């Protein structure tokens, strides 16, 4: 889908038609915002978070707090080639899809799964890609908890996987014998993120250059499912992080986000911290964000 250009929005400007990429004439080079980081529990315990809140309210959904810190986020619109999976840990690709609504249509989702497998293997040169789940987020105007039935954008700096949880994914989603030998070779977990229905001016994704993250700022946090425990990284603040986003991502664009790499290139990124954030330059006509993300095991 070709890039379309509009004039900068004013108070009376209506939304442009279509769902593809829109570049405004006054495209900002960066935005200055606040991002939410992890603050450790006061009792020194390991952080945890429940996927589903306790309906009685007696058990807190998490035992740690968020604290906002200022951040400058560079807009890569027009400079998408400046980032890549091996070095920064993420990439932006133009990739049209036949599926645009992502309603509860199993056949359409399966077709999109195959599109995504083809996209990931072609871009990375991997031998095999296995999608193990997907999440559709549809932001609501009223405050809404992020639960399995009402998934919302996550305004918290995090990494979806730790080395331990990534390895567990291999053995969870592959036959035991295949998992045994593939786990000894290079593998990655990659999120493939795409806006749904309209360009994502609202609550876009900020992604950190993984090379600017110190290992000591990555804190393992237990992710508590109803039937098991997983693990993610929550992130402590540092002024060294370098943040980027692609303003107004269209439905014909995807972000490839490297959540884990078992054998990163020398000097390259192993993890990609990311977060949703409020963009102060969001046009008045921007629709509430909808997005789909597929989580993919990538084997070399």
TrEMBL record:
Locations of Low complexity compositional bias?
Answer: 1-17
- Note down the stretches annotated as region Disordered: 1-24, 44-63
MF term (GO), any: oxidoreductase activity
Which InterPro entries does the record associate with it?
A: AsaB-like
The superkingdom of the source organism is Eukaryota
Family listed: Belongs to the asaB hydroxylase/desaturase family.
Q: Show the NCBIfam families listed in the entry.
A: CmcJ_NvfI_EfuI
Q: Which PANTHER family match?
A: BLL6449 PROTEIN, OXIDOREDUCTASE AN1597
Which protein are we looking at?
Answer: Methyltransferase
Which source organism does the UniProt entry give? Calocera cornea HHB12733
